[in-house]
């Protein structure tokens, strides 16, 4: 059956209900020559036309409940390329429910694209599955990729494209967690977000033993169109090299490039708000940035009481991503969700991205089914109508990149004791050869634009083998306080920069 969870469905439900468009595929389009440049030209031409939403699938498909949808699943033994020696198999997902408009899927063999029409006979179902119409604007809602990852002869899934421009992948030892998107528009804006949609896909048929697979996608939205090429290499990390050409129909004042979407409910910083048997619940616990100056920043995530947006102004960033640093089962004590196995996702720009800001959007959430964290690069200048935008970047799904500096592996907060006013923050830095000379060999730098902080106390942590930095501050009547801390040695960084936004 589909690996999608209820939270995965809900995370794309809003995106899938926005008006999405592409002219209906005719039989003449089933077989035709294909090239990426041809797809670019198609996206460019589409941007000159008025946006029109695609037709929805029949009403009985839209009326499917979540439980009914789960009674029907793709039959893996009949996957695309399953009866060949090609190195990948492809499974399809049903439309309907949260996926009201189907996508069109093609394969490419020797430069020729062949349409893959909807085939309901490829699905199995239980006796509780409803009868569904077989006429109308049907198609698949997406697909998943399978290949040999560790066991010879066993093709395991590692990547899914489904819902708006959402897609997700895992390294060989991960369970699914956060998602990426082709593009984000107006995230967190008062007038509402616009969700671009991948409306059509092309999959290059791989040869026997081929390690990579290439996927192309056509993106469409009221404000923008685009052509995408994904070169995907699974393994210990799943690495995707992404090329995109975007064409602005309208002005694009708020664009999110390389957008990531995740979930953070609680950890030690806000544990008291949740009546839950687990010590923490999150797919990601922090935003990691390597800015254009080579400075490494770590911002623990929060589940705020009200929407908050943070901007980390930069020029030509070297990388950013959402990480899951909590890696022990005991960090979550969840036998089903396996949050300690969620992947990290690192975005590495290729070329110069200019001036802008890594942007973090944190949305209040009361349940783990909601993806409430978004991170992306926002260019400083708006794109004018008719602008053509070239993008190239790498996505690495799996373990965290090594930044050659001790990491902040835990952040905790609480009230000061013994009747004193204010708050205490503690930051645990992992063990490192840089700490071999002890705490006295390190300089502590703590600052805030809003409050005075204590000087800080640095001690060895016998549990982690690293160091713990503790300091206090009094927020007074403020409802939020920005904080910054770092350890240095001989004038050089001895840890990444820890950033935090305390809120009431």
Describe this protein with a few key phrases.
single chain; 34 strands; 504 residues; 4 helices; mainly beta; 2 domains; Beta-galactosidase, Chain A, domain 5; ten-stranded antiparallel beta sheet
Walkthrough of the structure:
- This protein is mostly beta strands.
- It folds into 2 domains: 7-118 and 137-398, Beta-galactosidase, Chain A, domain 5 (Distorted Sandwich), CATH 2.70.98; 408-503, Immunoglobulin-like.
- It has 4 helices and 34 strands.
- The strands form 5 sheets. The chain has a 16-stranded mixed sheet that branches.
- A hairpin with a 2-residue loop joins strand 32 and strand 33 (492-493).
- The longest helix is centred in the first third of the chain and has 12 residues, at 36-47.
- The protein is globular.
- The relative contact order is 0.12.
Report the major sheet: 16 strands, mixed
What would CATH call the architecture of the largest domain?
Distorted Sandwich
Quickly count the helices. 4
Question: In percent terms, what proportion of residues is strand?
Answer: 35-45%
Number of domains: 2
The CATH topology name of the largest domain reads Beta-galactosidase, Chain A, domain 5
Helix content: under 10%
Shape: globular
Instruction: Specify Rg, calculated over alpha carbons.
Output: 24 Å
Count all strands and give the number: 34
The span between the termini is 43 Å
Detail the poorly predicted runs. 12-28
Indicate the CATH class of the largest domain.
Mainly Beta
- The chain-level structural class is mainly beta
Overall mean confidence score, pLDDT: 93
